Amino acid sequence: MGAVDKFENDLFEKYPRIMESLRISLTEARFMHTLGVAFTAASLGMRYGVDVEDCLMAGLLHDCAKCQSAEENIELMESHGVEVSDVQRENTKLLHAGAGAVMAREKFGIEDEGILNAIRLHTTGDSDMTILEKIVYIADYIEPFRDTVENLSEIRKLAFTDIDGCLVKIMSQTVGYLKKLGVKTDIATMRAYEYYSSRANENN
User: Fold this and answer.
1) Burial class of residue 160 in the structure, from the number of CB atoms within 10 Å of its CB (0-12 exposed, 13-18 middle, 19+ buried)
2) In this structure, are residues 98 and 82 in contact, taking their beta carbons and an 8 Å threshold?
3) Does the domain at residues 3-148 carry the CATH identifier 3.30.43.10?
4) Cβ atoms 124, 188 nearer than 8 A
5) Structural domain boundaries in the chain
6) Nearest to 39 by CA among 146, 116, 126, 120
7) Residue 81 exposed, middle or buried by CB count within 10 Å (0-12, 13-18, 19+)
8) Quick check: 61 and 55 in contact, CB under 8 A?
9) Residue whose C-alpha is closest to residue 54's, from 124, 119, 7
10) Are 173 and 198 in contact (CB under 8 A)?
């Protein structure tokens, strides 16, 4: 049995209902990505002294609403009083984060606000994030099955040596990529980028 298979089997033993639901609702590629994020988040949690169980759970559920339609995610968010921004309606790839936080609470019984916020912020980030929020945001970007991200080796190294510097690098590339595509950047992403860039400059 390979390491990935063992990790997956261990997660099925530990979280059978969640894992079975994810395996059914996600595409194969998205499910493998989810395993990668959970593994990376747990690894970063050990590195930075964050509860590994929280990291695993946030990693497992970060994309739980990813394979729903935009309409389904908007309906889920609005039905639970979660505001849907104009940018989210235009860039519907952002919707699954807010919808995923709702689903994690309502479907999977997650009540820990730290985990829920890490799911909610994993696509945009925000200023003054908790360490768990940073970990899930970064893990989503650097997980082992990613292979097309620019400067990935450097970013992976930074993740384990300078977590805020890693955030700045990821956000810089994300903002630049969205500008190149002509896609509006979410206000939370810009707020995060400006906040962590400013902190990095102060420390230099």
Assistant:
1) middle
2) yes
3) no
4) yes
5) 3-148
6) 146
7) exposed
8) no
9) 119
10) no
pLDDT tens for residues 164-193? 999 999 999 999 988 888 888 899 999 999
Tokens read off for 88: 């989210």
- As given in the structure block, the two tokens for residue 145 are 């099955």
- Rounded-to-integer distance, Cα 34 and Cα 165, Å: 24
Q: Please check the confidence at residue 204 and state whether its pLDDT lies above 70.
A: no
CA angle, 173 then 154 then 49, to 5°:
100
* Residue of 132, 144, 147, 165 lying closest to 40 (CA atoms): 144
Token pair for 140: 């989503």
Written as six digits, the tokens of 111 are 């009540």
Locate all alpha helices (DSSP H) within 80-146, ordered by sequence: 86-90, 95-106, 113-120, 131-142
pLDDT in tens, 58-75: 999 999 999 999 999 999
For residue 68, give the amino acid letter. Q
